[in-house]
Specification:
Length: 119
């Protein structure tokens, strides 16, 4: 799910931009553990249940200077998009998360998160 970058809204976007500006090519396999650990540190400051970090599951894709984190489940997709549900255990093995404002749908095949206005 792409959108305009605004600093301070999504800590993962901030981390990605800071890495790119610093000249770190996080798409290289040798940096995966560092990126993963950075994401864990970010989540530790946000999540109320530290055990929820076990759901963090993503890959890093890089192609011609284009880098993206690809979530392997709904929970990680939400986190990487800056959405932090309170009770993630309810979302395990699900593909949909609803808030008053939006419905988030995770497509397991394409590994994309789609956000629509909740009517």
């Amino acid at each position: 799910m792409g959108s305009k970058y605004i600093a301070g809204i999504n800590p993962f976007s901030d981390f990605m931009l800071e890495s790119i500006v610093s000249g770190v090519d996080i798409s290289k396999k040798k940096h995966f553990v560092d990126v993963y650990n950075a994401c864990v540190l970010i989540l530790e400051t946000i999540l109320t249940n530290p055990n929820d970090i076990k759901y963090l599951d993503f890959e890093i894709k890089g192609n011609n200077g284009y880098i993206r984190l690809v979530a392997n489940n709904l929970i990680t997709a939400l986190w990487l998009s800056g959405v932090f549900p309170n009770d993630v255990d309810l979302l395990v093995n699900r593909n949909v998360f609803k808030t008053e404002e939006y419905v988030y749908r995770y497509d397991k095949k394409t590994k994309k998160l789609i956000r629509k206005i909740n009517k």
